[in-house]
Amino acid sequence: MSLVAINQYKISPEIIGISKHRIQPDQIDNDAKSIIKKLNKGGFRGYIVGGFVRDSILGLKPKDCDVVTNATPEEIKNLLPRTRIIGKRFKIVHARSGRNITEISTFRSSNQSNTKKSSEGLLLRDNNYGNIEDDVFRRDFTINALYLDVEKMEIIDFVEGFQDIKNGDLKSIGDSFERFKEDPVRILRAIRFKAKLNLNIDNKLGKDMKKLSYLLKEISSGRKYEETLKLLLTGNSQSIMSEMQNHDLLDYLLPLTKDFLNSKKDKRFIFNVLKNTDERYKRNKTLTPSFLFAVLLWPALINKTGSLNSKKIKIHNISRAANLVLKKHNQNCFIPARIQQSIKETWELQAMLLKIPEKSKIALKHKRFRAGYDFLLLREKSGENLGGAGQWWTKKIAY
After folding, report:
1. Does pLDDT of 120 surpass 60?
2. Which of 118, 222, 239, 357 is a Cys-bridge partner for 122, taking CB atoms 3.0 to 4.6 Å apart?
3. Is the pLDDT of residue 124 over 70?
């Protein structure tokens, strides 16, 4: 990052005490506290950074408690038991305690000696280590660049991130155009934070997101799949889908879905299901990637098969069309094979569930029956005429 970008912030950080940030020690994950204690005892410095600090300030329940330190991955591994180094592009350490995994990263430096970029400016490798003053300027947004010292219960703030959280502003650290070029996934993170936290995005940030959306094609198809799940399975999928439309992002994540959002019928179905998904998330109900993608790609399947609201539809026709749709989608955003199989079975059940009562026994024994049944009900709820099949099945399983 340029000196100009760095100089817009304070050289010495603001120290925010517990009376102001109001994060209590008992809110902090015990594993993270134990890791930091061992790092500090071993002659290093450890802090909690990112989403935990941000969400705790906002009074939200944080999902993760990430640790950052001046110890290198190798030093962390030597100091802490049950740890392993993962990643090539950005080396980090995973520390396991029971079923809990704590992510530990090393302070990054702005030094370019061990950094590799693509012709577009995308960071391909970045394992230059530095200190906290370097690290803060390698982070994406000011709201994610607050460091919590768990011994003193103080937040270290170099970039006025605490005030941005209070004001509800999403701001890039440094020039957003350059930061998005370094890692286009930051564009998706901006969308997610805006929707999740109801943040304001200024004009430049919004314009840069649109200008550089094409760089998402450089991201691996597997990573795009994971990012899509983060966007749409975390309780804000309706607003995120709208934001992705507004910022021209669907071409690079869900092109087969984008093609059908101009249809009122298809858009109603997709957004009804997204609403249902958000409600399930808020009630801590199970959310499955296969069901989500079965919905998002359903209009593309219908486009291949024609109407699927008749008893006459053949399962093998659905299966053949499903293979074509999934193959095309996977060119852009690769869905794991086991998830693809679940999607196909949910779709194939739509034919079976319409063949009542003759296929009822087979359908009830199918391992995807519940997903297929729920899918059928959501189709009816969106206005599709399925001859009362949903009501028939609801009565059937009630007995």
Report:
1. no
2. 118
3. no
**pLDDT tens digits along 13-36:** 999 999 999 999 999 999 999 999
State how far the Cα of 281 lies from the Cα of 235, in Å rounded to an integer. 5
Query: Catalytic amino acids?
Result: 64, 66, 140
Q: Which two tokens stand for residue 283?
A: 């009630």
C-beta neighbour count of 224 within 10 angstroms: 20
Q: Which two tokens stand for residue 207?
A: 């314009």
Kindly report the number of other CB atoms within 10 A of residue 209's CB atom: 25
Q: Running DSSP on this structure, what letter comes out for residue 335?
A: P
DSSP, collapsed to helix, strand or coil, labels residue 358 as: coil
pLDDT, tens only, 57-92: 999 999 889 999 999 999 999 999 899 999 877 899
Tokens of 272: 């009804």
In angstroms, the Cα distances linking 126 to 81, 158, 331, 346 are 25, 22, 27, 41
Buried b (16+ CB within 10 A) or exposed e, 115-152: beeeeebbeeebbbbbebbbbbbbbbbbbbbbbbbbee
First to last CA, the chain: 65
Question: Is it true that the peptide bond before 357 is cis, omega within 30 degrees of 0?
Answer: yes
Output the CA–CA distances (angstroms, integers) from residue 144 to 155, 258, 354, 361, in the order listed.
Answer: 12, 30, 50, 53
| Buried/exposed code over 9-24 (b: 16+ C-beta within 10 A; e: otherwise) | beeebbebeeeebebe
The answer to whether the CB of 377 falls within 8 A of the CB of 386 is: no
Q: Is residue 268 within 8 Å of residue 259, measured between CB atoms?
A: no
| Closest listed residue to residue 291, CA positions, set 223, 351, 375, 381 | 375
Q: Give dist(CA 347, CA 317) in Å, integer.
A: 11
Q: Once rounded to an integer, what is the mean pLDDT over residues 210-225?
A: 94
| Domains of the chain by start residue, with CATH | 3-173 (3.30.460.10), 254-398 (1.10.3090.10)
The Cα-based distances of 274 to 189, 239, 257, 286, 331 in angstroms read 19, 9, 13, 14, 24
Distance of CA 93 to the CA centre of its chain: 20
In tens, the pLDDT along 358-386 reads 889 999 999 999 999 999 999 999 999 99
User: Which pairs from 20-24 meet CB under 8 Å and 24+ separation?
Assistant: 20/162, 21/56, 21/57, 21/155, 21/162, 22/57, 23/53, 23/56, 23/57, 23/148, 23/153, 23/155
- Name the amino acid, one letter, at 153: M
Q: What is the pLDDT of residue 74?
A: 96
